[in-house]
């Protein structure tokens, strides 16, 4: 995951460092001058967030260098705020159609919401909840990687199935990446974090009451 995230970040950003709209990988709206600018302002900090995110999940680094975790976390947050504001404009001006606009609008809302919850929980010292919200948030950031993987797969399928249009591939890739990146972390959060917690609580209740179905008053 880390390698693919860093690879996509390193691959995506350079085309938008030149300031040349002709190098954009998606069609730029010729009637709206700020469209290209919004893609550039979005792509650069979004790539930085994608690149930095994996560092935050390396436990020894987090434990040994908490100061570094805080600094990288702040850069990650600022990058997402900047990328989100620009993505809102890119969503409004995109030429890729209403289904894509709806998908990106939902992704933007979920990206900001999970980030805000991640920030609020750590300010309150709720470390475990911070961890859960940041897993959700980075999974949504990772949608950029999953989207590009689906695009690659879709383009490869165009050869044997030439009736599939690029619009079909793009729209289904956007939606598939959003759904997958929203659902997969829930599996890990429930299985790895909440299930052991529920089991521990259940064992404590059983030990205290002698009955598995009685709550301790
Ligand atoms: C997860 C939240 C994200 C949202 C809501 C979002 C939204 C958008 C939108 C609306 C566009 C314009 C698409 C179009 O017109 O069809 C776009 C393009 C782009 N985004 Fe994001 N994006 C997100 C994450 C990322 C990340 C993490 C990266 C890092 C690589 C990234 C890099 C790009 C690039 C490079 C483009 C230009 C198209 C291309 O060259 O592939 N985005 N994004």
UniProtKB/TrEMBL annotation:
InterPro entries: DUF2306_membrane
Keywords tagged on the record: Membrane, Transmembrane, Transmembrane helix
Source superkingdom: Bacteria
Signal peptide feature range: none
Residue ranges of the TM segments: 35-59, 71-92, 98-116, 137-157, 169-190
Protein name in UniProt: DUF2306 domain-containing protein
